[in-house]
Amino acid sequence: MAVIVALLPVLGARGGGAAAEDHGAHGAHGAHGARPPRPHHAAAPASAMEPAAPVLSRAGWTASASDEETAQADNRAANVLDGKADTLWHSRWSGSAAPLPHSLVIDMHRTEVVSALLYQPRTDSPNGRVGEYAIHLSTDGQNWGAAVAGGTLADDTTTKTLSFAARGTRYVRLTATSEAGNRGPWSSAAEIRLLGDPGLPASVVDLPTTGWTASASDEETAQADNRAANILDGDADTLWHSRWSGSAAPLPHSVTIDMHRTQTVSALTYQPRKSEANGRIGAYSVATSLDGVSFGSPVAGGVWKDDDTVKSTTFTRPVPARFVRLTATTEAGNRGPWSSAAEVRLSGPADPSVSGSWDRVTGFPLVPVATAVLPNNKLLAWSAYAIDRFGGSNGYTQTAIMDLGTGQVTQRRVDNTGHDMFCPGIAVLSDGRVLVTGGSNASRASIYDPRTDTWSATGEMNIPRGYQAMTLLSNGDAFVLGGSWSGARGDKDGEVWSPATGKWRRLPGVPATGTMTADPAGPYRADNHQWLHATSRGRVLQLGPSKQLNWIDTTGNGTVTPAGTRADSPDAMNGNAVSYDIGKLLTLGGATAYENANATRRAYTVGLGDGTRPVSKRTGDMAYARSFGNSVVMPDGKVAVFGGQSYPVPFSDATSVMTPEIWDPATGAFTKMAGMAVPRNYHSVANLLPDGRIFSGGGGLCGDCATNHADGAVFTPPYLLNPDGSRKPRPAFTSTPPARVANGAVLPVTTDKPVAAFSLVRAGAATHSVDNDQRRVPLTFRQAGSTSYELTVPGDPGVALPGTYMLFALDAAGVPGVAKMITIG
Q1: Are 187 and 102 spatial neighbours (Cβ–Cβ below 8 Å)?
Q2: Residue 735: CA atoms inside 13 Å, Cβ hemisphere, count?
Q3: Distance (Å) of CA 421 to CA 68, 87, 298, 376, 447
Q4: How far apart are the first and last CA of the chain?
Q5: How far is the C-alpha of 421 from the C-alpha of 435, rounded, in Å?
Q6: How are beta strands 531-534 and 504-506 bridged, if at all?
């Protein structure tokens, strides 16, 4: 639900977005500190105020509806296109009201690439605000196919951006299946707009360039090696440039890629030169050919911004082609008659069995900044005091719960704990409850109990915090460290919460100083979002984001013991760490500073070894540098990474990485997956689900800006899919394991067919790129019969940490079944 409002230049103070945050309020519900608020970020960047995709011209469009009110009011469907917020479409309400669902169809009378629908509710009355919705696309107005988006909208007047994977279409249909406030069987809309190509292709993969050649209408070879071939060499420091020596070749200029075989192509990616601005392409078109002679009508076109970020364009339709021609008709800054490119790549539809696939985009009634997987097949999400912005210490939080079985999303405001839970620490407790600490109300702590669907307050922390790190300990207590974003800066020493008393115990022997990065902003940033891994006897390995690793002992007053560095890794703020096997972790991405520093492609493995000095090694690099990305361990021990930026800037979608990757511990290599439909950067999340799929969502929370992403989508990894996208057969449990299993117990299970492996994956809780709760524990087992097995749960609670786990069975091909939820400890 990005809010497109006049492209405001800055965000307001308290209540107006992300410009200010009251860090001094630690008192009762709704209280505010006497101290002036400190800035979270001085202002949202300019890129946050503009939608990533252009707002399409509505010239020549028409609108129709399943029904409309014309007897008692002029509530025709055509009103959604008239540019007047005080006129509206309304379902028929006079006489006998037309029952839900109601639908509204936009006919653009031409094919355009569309990536989102902007829904502006009526402002004169709440009646008819759309609640649950679905969006369908059609090229002919008759065949609609499956919904490309759906979900639940908040019951307010803000304009909602309903995103989906960019696709060429002529017709867009919005269907309302409920009224947001359940006030009656009505639907209404003041205005409908559509967003075009975001330049971020979705559900595609880069085509391999082996054997490709490139030619150009002209190229510079006399004064520099600026041949067309340079766009395919994988080196961003080399480039193609139009002829500039002597008499410069006039615009337009074109470069043509010959793939030397016919392939289906659906997107082109253009990387401008790095060295200087000259020749950046402005207006462009893309055409394709099977023979290199006859090029049809353009399949893409537009105008690229005059900056050095990587650009992409989505074709109006996937096309079979051997030749793809990019033609530049203007220079982006009008500096001269030049064109240039560092790299050009082509993408095509993904093979699901190799690259996975994405379900439709699901709308949430808030930006899911934090999420936790619950034992009852639901996903808990929350934002701040508001659904799309933060500010102050208001003492309440907007929450939502997604039913993973039905996809239904419900919203609730939590007031009773006096806690604005924005930017918190999170730990999933041994009984499946979720402990949330600090944030906007910096000393508060709250607990969500999925068994009763209730929130309650627990003891306040001794040290107010925000952006702190948490983990459960092997004895069931919870440990917290750092968090200078909220409360006073610095001195965020460790403390421990006891479930028996609900109180916190300070650890004076665990200062945060030795665990901090060298961020230029000092403690305010340097002690944020730490990577913590709990081990035996109440010990914790702090393995990032600082390059320095530390062992932390939480007994007594606590101690911190330096444990070497993470191989040759520098600080990696806003990267993350994932426990993919017993005593083995993978760290990914990050940057040397919280923002405005280049992210890294590097990944490292960290082995706990004998528990004294961890062994860190560099593994294969990711294809893309990422900061603000999220990583998830899968049942087979592979790790999936989503989103992030190559140059991290909070609230911006510039330099977004749209291609997920999966790391294989057997090879140390990353493999690109099908692209995402929506950027996932700052304030985004990802979680493994019990069915082996992965939820990725969120990003933004910057108020009146265009980078709020109040939605999410589920990624199906390739281990579940056939080449045609159908599901592979999966093993299934035919017995019901006990709800709770002790460490060291032998667990008998039966399955419907022979399986090759079993693993436990702890239910995770994610925020700000960090999920210290997730860990994978492969199980040893004895086969007691053809489909009966005895699984051995590790006896050490530092290995199988207490808590809720997803128990997976995997067949010989590595296909996981749907997990059974059990509690260990």
Answers
A1: yes
A2: 15
A3: 42, 38, 49, 22, 11
A4: 41
A5: 11
A6: unpaired
What the block records as the tokens of 57 is 């011209």
Check residue 110 and give its pLDDT.
96
Residue 763, number of CB atoms within 10 A of its CB: 24
For residue 117, CA distances in Å to 54, 133, 149, 160, 161 come to: 12, 12, 10, 8, 6
Measured from the Cβ of residue 652, the count of other Cβ atoms closer than 10 Å reads 26
Element (H, E) at 685: strand 684-688
Q: Of the listed 682, 719, 789, 805, which one is catalytic? A: 682
On the question of a cis peptide bond just before residue 252, with omega within 30 degrees of 0, the verdict is: yes
* Contact indicator for 1, 153 with CB cutoff of 8 Å: yes
| CB atoms closer than 10 angstroms to residue 58 | 18
Q: What is the pLDDT of residues 280-295, one digit of tens each?
A: 999 999 999 999 999 9
How deeply is 153 buried, as exposed, middle or buried, from its count of CB atoms within 10 A (0-12, 13-18, 19+)? Answer: buried
Does the annotation mark 284 as catalytic? no
Condensed to tens digits (0 to 9), the pLDDT of residues 698-757 reads 999 999 899 999 999 999 999 999 999 999 999 999 999 999 999 999 999 999 999 999
Average pLDDT over residues 242-261: 97
Tally of residues, the chain: 825
Q: Which residues pair with 684 in a beta bridge?
A: 698
Phi-psi region of 151 (alpha: psi -120 to 50; beta: other; left: phi over 0): left
User: Tell me, what's the pLDDT at 552?
Assistant: 98
Q: On the CB side of 436, how many CA atoms lie within 13 Å of its CA?
A: 35
